[in-house]
Amino acid sequence: MIFQTEKFYVDTVEKEDLPGIVEIYNSNINFLQAHMSRKSVDIDWIKKEIKNMKEEGFYSCKIICKKTKEIIGIIDFSLKEKCYLSLIIIHNNHKKMGYGKEIYLGFEDYVKSKGARDIRIDVVTNYDRNVLKFWKVNGFNVAEKIELNWTGKILNAFIMKKRIFS
């Protein structure tokens, strides 16, 4: 286990988790459309994405509900002094329940305990205004406007940062 919160624990993705990871991505059709211009991904795509993330120094982790033992989300991050939170995605059936906030706050506590001083995220600007609002409410500030290239699609985005140690 990497870290836990009251309702969830986070651990690295294993081979047997891949069908559940595919389901989480595919439950978020708007995310897939906005970020990759597609309506679904498959296990091969997930394997490639996890491999690419690992090669770049990122952990790909599953978010598991303690009560049901169900994988309800994914979190990808690199753990350095300047931590990079690449992705938090929650299954569409579990959105708007406060789970994202609980997971994020647990993640922040975890990276603080590992010596991180800052957290960076990239937020796609033309996806969902609630995402930008979520990060601002959680203490992030826009640092720079950028263009991301994810799976060959160019996306307008903001780099957002939060200082977690002064």
From TrEMBL:
InterPro entries: Acyl_CoA_acyltransferase, GNAT_dom. The keyword Transferase applies. Residues 8-165 form the N-acetyltransferase domain. GO terms for molecular function: acyltransferase activity, transferring groups other than amino-acyl groups. Keywords: Transferase. SUPFAM superfamilies: Acyl-CoA N-acyltransferases (Nat). This is Acetyltransferases.
